[in-house]
């Protein structure tokens, strides 16, 4: 699962679902007063600005970045090529849709999958819950040959 065009997906999401996102976010904050107070102090201005005017973040001019969100394979099928086939098909669809790069954020065993299949690791970070996250990418302009 993913989006072939990150910018178009974000604009579509904020255009069609802005009100629902706002309501769910506000509801979640209202039941957590301390989180609400911190949000209002540190992040509210930036979030409200984005809700008013969606911006396309992360893309370099002349590139269309696609996001791979998740590849799900039943445990009994691991190491059988299903994940590789699903990923290859997603990359094919992205290239046909005009994407020049595909990115994915992974943790745990998923990081190993992307390493084994030739994705380039760009950066790492630790999530607030302590998980180690790694950003991987593929450049489709060279046909994904670096993979």
TrEMBL record:
Residues 56-130 form the N-acetyltransferase domain. GO terms for molecular function: acyltransferase activity, transferring groups other than amino-acyl groups. SUPFAM superfamilies: Acyl-CoA N-acyltransferases (Nat). It comes from the Bacteria. It holds the Pfam family Acetyltransf_10. This is GNAT family N-acetyltransferase. It comes from Pseudonocardia petroleophila.
């Amino acid at each position: 699962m993913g989006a072939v065009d990150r910018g178009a997906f974000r604009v579509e999401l904020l255009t069609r679902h802005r009100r629902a996102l706002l309501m769910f976010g506000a509801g979640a904050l209202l039941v957590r007063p301390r989180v609400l107070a911190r949000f209002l102090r540190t992040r509210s201005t930036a979030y409200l600005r984005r809700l008013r005017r969606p911006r396309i973040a992360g893309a370099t001019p002349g590139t269309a970045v696609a996001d791979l969100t998740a590849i799900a394979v039943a445990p009994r099928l691991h190491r059988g090529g299903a994940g590789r086939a699903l990923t290859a098909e997603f990359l094919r669809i992205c290239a046909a849709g005009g994407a020049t790069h595909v990115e994915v954020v992974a943790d745990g065993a998923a990081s190993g999958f992307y390493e084994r299949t030739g994705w380039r690791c760009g950066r790492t970070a630790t999530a607030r819950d302590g998980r180690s996250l790694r950003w991987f990418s593929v450049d489709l302009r060279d046909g994904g040959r670096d993979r």
